[in-house]
Amino acid sequence: MPVVAEPEQESEAQLEARFEAVINRKDRVEPRDWMPDAYRRTLVRQVAQHAHSEIIGMQPEGAWIGRAPSLRRKAILLAKVQDEAGHGLYLYSAAETLGVSRQELTEMLISGRQKYSSIFNYPTLSYADVGTIGWLVDGAAICNQVPLCRTSFGPYGRAMIRICKEESFHQRQGYELLMTMMRGTDEQRAMVQESVDRFWWPSLMMFGPPDDESPNTARSMAWGVKTHTNDELRQRFVDMTVPQAKALGVTLPDPELVWNEERGAHDFGQPDWDEFWDVVKGNGPCNAQRVAHRKKAWDDGAWVREAALAFAAGDGSDTSSDTSSDTSDGPRTA
Ligand code: FAQ
Known about the structure:
By secondary structure, this protein is mostly helical. The chain contains 13 helices and 2 strands. The chain has a two-stranded antiparallel ribbon. Helix 4 (71-96) packs antiparallel against helix 7 (154-182), helix 6 (128-145) runs antiparallel to helix 7 and helix 6 packs parallel to helix 8 (186-205). The radius of gyration is 24 Å and the shape is globular. Mean pLDDT is 93; it is low at 322-334. The structure holds Phenylacetyl coenzyme A. Phenylacetyl coenzyme A binds next to helix 2, helix 6 and helix 9. It holds the Pfam family PaaA_PaaC. Its EC number is 1.14.13.149.
């Protein structure tokens, strides 16, 4: 019998070198490729937080579906909130390719062991907030997420491509809603301004702490997980938003906001970083409510998960009593 040579096992150093070469070529790392544990942990952390943000992010706007002022507005809002659910699901799927299950991640969210974006811990107090979230929150999300389409981990980057297309639609619908209100009554214009005043600073916080207080940025950039720093993206967002605010006719609530000719960018004030850390630690205005709501939905859905598992195990395969294809109008016999 011919002797078949065993394929030579690559050493840890060789695997590491191969991984580094992929990163340096700006190629994608795929789920079955070898990757350092710390890279995997960073991705699970970021992708899970991102997925949780999309799912928790359904709540502030979802609260207005039943109170939308017209059928058209209701249909738009319903579609947007459903899109956010879809984004959460793509991202949980991307995280699952790293060896964690959606169940584990959801349990970490509801037990407070994983985070979600600070922005969703602020209340939505008026219908104008639906427009402001579309304009500013989805706008900030786009600034942050377009570069993530080129992130080094394949499934995450590919999920982001579709998500970004949908977020662009979300931003436009928000801006259009605010434009419509700004063409309305004085009271409606005041509602828009009041909403922008409340959401401006929390939107800037979405980009994370300043670079010199961001423990993860350097490592994540070296791995190509992040391609820009928090401050770079925050600056991009401010520069993009100022002309939009002008066209809308609202004031951004920052007395330090001014165009800097030399830098070719806007100077602007800093958000209240103590407030940011307080919200991240769970003490924001709506943290407890958001997590409790998510936990209730998860608990209420237990029977669906159990039924799906039972069906997958074969218990639901008996269709002899299934009458769904019975088209007769007559009385049914037992
Ligand atoms: N909120 O070292 P860094 C959306 C944490 S989706 C809460 O700078 P990193 C769509 C951070 O996790 C919005 N925590 O961290 C939508 C870390 O803690 P850890 C979500 C925050 O990862 C619209 C610590 O602080 N988007 O809006 C926040 O390098 C409308 C130190 O920070 C994403 O998740 C924060 N804002 O950079 C849905 C995008 N910022 O984990 C519905 C992907 C920081 O060490 C309606 N994520 N922290 O315990 C990212 O780009 C990054 O993770 C950053 C943070 C930039 C958020």
